[in-house]
Amino acid sequence: MLNWAGVFRLGLVNYAIGSITVLMVSTLNRVMVVELGLPALVPGLLVGLYYILQLTRPGWGHRSDLGGRRTPLILTGVALLSVGGVLAALAVGLHGEMPVASLLLSVVAYAMIGAGAGAAGTSLLALVAAATPFERRAGAATVVWLMLLLGGTSSAVIVGTLIDPFSPARLVQIVLLVATMAMALAVVAVAGIERRLPLTPPETHQPLREGLTEIWAEPPARRLALFVALSITTYFLQDLILEPYAGLVFGFTPGETTRMQGVQSGGVLVGMATTGVVATGLRMGKLHHWVVAGCVGSAAALVAIGLAGPLQAGRLLPFVAMLGICNGVFAMAMVAAMMRLASAGREGREGTRLGIWGAAQAVASGFGGLLGAVAVDLLRLVLPVQLAFTPVFMVEALLFLFSALLAGSAIAEADKPRLQMTAAKGETT
Q1: Residue 121 and residue 214: Cα distance in Å, rounded?
Q2: Which domains, ranges and CATH numbers included, belong to the chain?
Q3: Could you tell me the pTM of the whole model?
Q4: Nearest CA to 194 among 254, 131, 283, 244?
Q5: How far apart are CA 386 and CA 191, in angstroms?
Q6: CA 344, 348, 354: angle at the middle one, nearest 5?
Q7: Which of 9, 160, 318, 322 has its CA 20 to 30 A from that of 98?
Q8: What's the CA gap between 268 and 125, in Å, rounded?
């Protein structure tokens, strides 16, 4: 089984994934809207495509369950992610001279990024869940997700520092450097690690459709998938509009908005670390209580962010940091619950189960981001720019409060002792 050194080592894969994906949903999104003057709908659709392609997560997870070895899928996914990131940056540089070709290349790039993140991320979590003792799974989830956030935070800070003064060529160079480092980290992380793990594939090669039907019939898996869909839609409503909000209303430069993304990601990192240490390490409080606390705190932060523009408060970063911290508390508790419930049912289906939840998360992420972007574009037609963003932030706050009300029935199952959760002899709970 994986020891803590092995868990930290595998966390480097998530570090690599985070270092690339943060640029797609933050820096490139900002450049398209502000520097290129495109409607927020354009990056919204591209990021939506990225998430739609992650509907393949159950398939990747099922394939890794049947194969028994997950390293090839992890490396394939990171390779797709890295190449797609570089192509996305090239597409932005081509927009001035070849706008149609630029958009077509962007579509290909974001599709590669989505498929790559789905393959690598699902296979990584399935490997950690299958190779980690039950009592350490929540802690292992903390480690690998903190590495994801650390990768995104460090990448955002570095790129924010290097990208000013902005130029398309400079953007491509920076993304190429990040992608090369990400691929190297992934290779180091997984090299030879599965050879020491006693992992065996299921006895029968069950078709994907039958496996999905079987897992969907498990009440804990179904309830968690529905909660993930709602809460993650809420979580990502501000994803594509926060940086344009900072640029258009507060006058932030590309470097400043990228660094703001770093502040938010750093806040998420603090929230996740705190929850990981206190909730999963010291075992203080139940996971669903931490989820509720994160949702309520996120709602309060969004109200403050939404009012900062119309009231000309001038201070945005403290509220963004608060949002990040509360988002981190909510996200870490939910991920810990997912990892605990990964084996709550028929054995040998961790990848498929995590794939279903990952697909729900991905679709909700894309839908939430796109919904927020479309809403802002429509509101800007009838409201001044300093007012157009506020209604979206307020609706997101209300949805977070609603998610808090639903958390108990969806998350509480993960707080039960292992013997009450895990099915005996392959029977579902």
Answers
A1: 23
A2: 4-192+208-421 (1.20.1250.20)
A3: 0.72
A4: 131
A5: 51
A6: 60
A7: 160
A8: 19
